[in-house]
Amino acid sequence: MSRSHQITVGNIWRRISFVFGLTIFVAAVSLPQAEAAQKKKHSHSVKSSKSPFIAKRKVSKLLGSAKRKSLVRAAAVPSRPSFGQMAGLHGAQDSLDLKSSVALVIDQDTSEVLFSKNDKAILPIASLTKLMTGLVLSEAGLPMNESITISQDDVDTEKGSSSRLSVGTVLSRGELLHLALMSSENRAAHALGRSYPGGLPVFVGLMNAKARLIGMNDTNYVEPTGLSSKNQSSARDLAKLVNVAHGDPVLRELSTSPGYQVEVGNRTLQYNNTNRLVKNSSWDIGLQKTGYITEAGQCLVMQAKVAGRKLIMVFLDSAGKLSRLGDAERVRRWVESIPAKPPGPVPLAGAYASEKLAANR
Predict the structure, then answer these.
(1) Where are the alpha helices (DSSP H) in the chain?
(2) Average pLDDT for residues 278-305, to the nearest whole number?
(3) Which of these ranges, 11-15, 80-84, 87-91, 271-275, has the smallest mean pLDDT?
């Protein structure tokens, strides 16, 4: 091989080596940049795919924060006090530590007052009103199988309370009375008064007339449900009402009924007693009625047999939902702890006992 040929081959080889090396260099420099760009693109894609969830979490946190603030504001707003609280009746102390600001316990046979607390205070009585509604209706002798239709007039505009008896529901007078006394159904009670011969004004007039007749001089009714705080009475007056109402077998049966079903269209509605004590086998309750509106607090009246004695119990303006029942239990335990009295005069009974209760005012 000649020298010129060797030089040419060498030059070609150097050029090939240079090009090959340059290619490797460019690849070495470009590859990391491409990988970095790909990672950046992937990272952006991941962020984009997560952004709705991140936004959702942020919104949830904001909503949760707003909800907590709303709850704090709601908790900070105090509930409206009852008439008894505004009158300072809850400050009164008693030996049984009752939660009701007004209480009265009377021996039904002898009219002996066993326990009293603010018994002359005149307060709203809520659905205890329905006991007088039932008494007036029962004594009227109207046909209990007569159909009555729930109307728009029976819808509560006083407190906005709900009812499962929709407008247009048709039930018998007897069914409505059952629901009013047992489950404190407001539309049922209002329909009973509205459908009375002469209408609601006549019915309410009869309620007040009956109250005066049995000596309830502290009592006033303006409507038959108890939703109005203008329906007011005292514990002494209510004890007279319970005594008279207990003499009516219809009121005894319906007010102490544990449960009742009514057919409304294609549905069967189950109603239960608002007083859970009627299902308690340790209680012997002859008549009862519960009541509640904010102005009245939790209320309860009962006729019950305790330790062999027939008692009339009245609890008004109790502070908690179950406290009226707790007060009844406290009174029962207290009466059961009282030593039995030695034999004495023959106790009062029947109509004479009712008259004495009515006169005790």
Answers:
(1) 3-76, 83-86, 129-140, 173-182, 186-194, 200-213, 235-245, 249-255, 323-337, 350-359
(2) 97
(3) 11-15
345: Cβ contacts below 8 Å, ≥ 6 apart = none
- Alpha-carbon distance values, 213 to 129, 185, 359 (Å): 16, 27, 11
Minimum mean pLDDT among 18-22, 123-127, 185-189, 354-358: which range? 354-358
Which of the four pLDDT bands, split at 50, 70 and 90, describes residue 319? Answer: confident
Give the active site residues: 127, 130, 184
Specify the pLDDT at position 79. Answer: 77
Tokens 């009246």 sit on residue: 301
CA–CA separation, 133 and 191 (whole Å): 11
Distance, CA of 262 to CA of 243 (rounded, Å): 29
Whole-number pLDDT of residue 154: 98
Question: Which two three-digit tokens encode residue 41?
Answer: 């693109």
Torsion of CA 307, 308, 311, 317, to 10 degrees: 20
**CA gap 330, 149 in Å, rounded:** 42
Residue 36, Cβ density class (10 Å: 0-12 exposed, 13-18 middle, ≥19 buried): exposed
